[in-house]
Amino acid sequence: METAVELLPRFFGWMDFAAFGLFLVAWHGMTWLVESPPPGRPSVHTIMAAHRLKWMMAMLHREPRIMDASLLNALRSGCAFFASGCMIAIGGVVALLGQADRLVTVAHDLRLDTATTRAGWEAKLLVLALVLVSAFMKFVWAHRLFGYCAVLMGTIGSDAEDPENQALARKAAAINVNAARNFNRGMRTTYFSMALLTWLLGAVPLALATLATALTLYRREFRSASRDALLAKDEPPVPDS
Questions:
Q1: 159: CATH
Q2: Count: domains in the chain
Q3: 84, 118, 182, 226: most buried by Cβ count inside 10 Å?
């Protein structure tokens, strides 16, 4: 009986393997680049991490802290929204798994990737579902971490000069930054899942969509007007992206 590794060459050609390898490198490479940027060129993620620490330290001097609670609730709502979206997308992909024969028919009618077998279509959809599950888990964990941050914020007293309160604020900031890191990872995974969807059209569309997604993320993190506004020392420009 043939193993899954032995069956793979029947489902995919070398271009599929190359395109999917490029996808994995770009997906995880962008995560590494954004979270560990070159010295002297911080990403938007690292810039905002510093502002999150400032937020928690400023909260020490703020009474009442209704605004801080509202901001945190907004962040948690964003996590819940995207987690729900991922669940809907996963359900759609699972439904497509039962319609693989129709996908083969459509591909032949449109002359798109006609070499892919029914098992190949199912394998592509399964990989897409797994990527969406990864995004879902990141959003759920980010939501939970923002909840931990809320608990820590609730333990901080009104004395801003108390060393214990300052330590709690730094802990809340660390949890907040970690929650944002997981949220951002979920967003990047969602972006790349959209690129992976083009694999249904073939290996070349997947490679092109992967490169376009990576370039878009790079521009937003390192070359966007929003980043320039965050780094501006005087009056910042009006960001357009």
A1: 1.20.1260
A2: 1
A3: 182
Say how far apart CA 72 and CA 54 lie, in whole Å: 15
Nearest to 228 by CA among 217, 215, 218, 241: 241
DSSP string, 25-60: HHHHHHHHHHHSPPTT---HHHHHHHHHHHHHHHHT
* 174 found inside a domain: yes
Q: Which residues of the chain have pLDDT under 50?
A: 1-7
Task: Tell me the helices (H) and strands (E) count for the chain, helix number first.
Answer: 9, 0
Does residue 177 belong to any structural domain of this protein? yes
- Residue 112 backbone class (left: φ over 0; alpha: ψ -120 to 50; beta: rest): beta
Q: What is the pLDDT of residue 148?
A: 95
pLDDT of residue 104: 62
Q: Per residue in 145-164, pLDDT tens?
A: 999 999 999 999 888 899 99
Residue 28: its pLDDT value, please?
Answer: 96
DSSP conformation class of 201: G
Query: What angle (nearest 5°) sits at the alpha carbon of residue 133, between those of residues 129 and 136?
Result: 140
Instruction: State the pLDDT at residue 234.
Output: 66
**Is 235 inside a domain boundary?**
no
Which has the closest alpha carbon to 36: 241, 181, 233? 181
